[in-house]
Amino acid sequence: MKVLERVLIKMVIIQFVFLILTQILLHQHGIFPELTQLTKYEGVSENSFTEIIQTLSGK
Fold it and tell me: Can the keyword Membrane be found in this entry's annotation (predicted)?
């Protein structure tokens, strides 16, 4: 059981390292420029929280 736990912990650490590296490559170095356009199109990068609150409180 200990061997399985060690293997799982190592796999989680490796996955986390790859996640961080991928995030750095995609967002900081602009390897995938369509991602920036997509987030702007979807409105993810904008702060639209106040508009939603104003819409809900206006009803």
Answer: yes
